[in-house]
């Protein structure tokens, strides 16, 4: 009898097929996880601007006087996934980069009683179209339903 050493070609092909199937299932889920993590960075960048615009609107009596660099609203900052933040007339706009390249988020304040009601809009280029759904899920700030 001859002792068999190593793996046969069929055994190696079965292992490669299993790895390919697991990769096909796992990689899209991992990509969604990375996209949501990047959007969390965008959410963290948004928070101080949103609070500052709310304070500015309270102090000034309107959001039209609320711009980046004035009334306690920070100048444009960047992070790993946010290329630019702008505030004009109280409207906050964030532009993504790296994993969020092609994604733009806009938050618009509107008067509601004595406070502000925010509405969000996510726009993406054709290459970043897969980011719109997670963006809308994370940044749903409009409370129009009563």
Automatic annotation (TrEMBL):
Biological processes, Gene Ontology terms: cell adhesion; protein transport; type IV pilus-dependent motility
Gene this chain is encoded by: ppdD
Topology of this chain in the membrane: Single-pass membrane protein
Keywords: Fimbrium, Membrane, Methylation, Protein transport, Transmembrane, Transmembrane helix, Transport
Cell compartments where the protein resides: Membrane
Keyword Electron transport: no
Gene Ontology cellular-component terms listed: membrane; type IV pilus
Homology family: Belongs to the N-Me-Phe pilin family.
Protein name, UniProt field: Prepilin peptidase-dependent pilin
Transmembrane segment boundaries: 12-30
């Amino acid at each position: 009898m001859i002792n068999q050493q190593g793996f046969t070609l069929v055994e190696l092909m079965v292992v490669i097929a299993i790895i390919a199937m697991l990769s096909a299932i796992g990689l899209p889920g991992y990509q969604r996880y990375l996209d949501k993590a990047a959007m969390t960075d965008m959410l963290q960048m948004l928070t101080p601007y949103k609070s500052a615009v709310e304070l500015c609107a309270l102090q000034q009596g309107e959001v039209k006087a609320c711009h980046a660099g004035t009334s306690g609203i920070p100048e444009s900052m960047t992070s790993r996934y946010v290329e630019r933040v702008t505030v004009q007339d109280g409207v906050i706009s964030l532009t993504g980069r790296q994993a969020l390249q092609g994604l733009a988020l806009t938050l618009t304040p509107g008067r509601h009683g004595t406070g502000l009601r925010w509405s969000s809009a996510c726009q993406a280029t054709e290459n970043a179209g897969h980011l719109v759904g997670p963006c809308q899920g994370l940044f749903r700030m409009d409370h129009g339903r009563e």
